[in-house]
Description:
- By secondary structure, the protein is mainly β.
- The chain is about 0% helix and about 50% strand.
- The chain has strands at about 5, 10, 20-25, 35-40, 45-50, 55-60, 65-70, 75-80, 90-95, 105-110.
- The strands form two sheets. The protein has a six-stranded mixed sheet with strand order 2-10-9-4-5-6, with no helix packed on it. Strands 1-3-8-7 form a four-stranded antiparallel sheet, with no helix packed on it.
Amino acid sequence: QVQCVESGGGQVQPGGSLRLSCVVSGITFSRYAMDWYRQAPGKQRELVAGITSDSTTEYTNSVKGRFTISRDNAKNTVYLQMNSLKPEDTATYYCSARYTGHWGQGTQVTVSS
Length: 113
């Protein structure tokens, strides 16, 4: 069974940085594209960033130039480096192995002064 376990969230001031991690089990990790989503209170879940099995990346416009997605296949882990954080980045962040329909429990990111 696919499991995704996110970590690394927290509270940070505007302009700060956080690095999220997601450890994945139950699949051959290197063969799957991985995505980071986020959901703010009262809003729909949105795709933030994705990385394919050959490490091609894509980002939603609002995070381009600030967030970086990466993967370490030896550790079955996908990362999201978030810099220059803004209050509007506040949300619960989830990772998912693309097309598996499985999600982690999420990690909360709060950007506030």
